[in-house]
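Researcher: Please translate sequence to structure tokens.
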Amino acid sequence: MKALLTALTLLLLAACQTAPPPIGPDASAQIYFQRAQAASDLNQYDEAMGIYKKFLADRPDATHENTFSARYEIAFLLFKKGEWAESKAAFAGILADYDDLDKSQGAPAWVKVLSQKVLQEIQDKEPKTSPKPSSPASS
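Model: Translation complete:
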């Protein structure tokens, strides 16, 4: 009986935990990324995307490494949610920015490689359109 009471007490305490405080705009990139990853690990993809988007909005002066990483995570979360068109557009935008040296200076190589890989996977999953049948020529 004592073990049951202890277990119920622990369960109740766990249920009463409060949400972490909001992230302030002066928080480090690490705080944003840790919170977003924690949400993603709990399959709270919309919350995770919101945190990455907040990071991009709050920190326009962030390094290209962090900016490209956050953009990749948003695109990948869209992919995980099955939002193919949005994910495809996000990955295409990331890859387009790698072609612009001013935008990609200091961007991590892994983001480009994985963006290409996931974009190819999306394209492979898209329904293939069959060519339109040609109409017979009139005689």
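Researcher: Any highlights?
Model: The first helix runs from residue 2 to 15.
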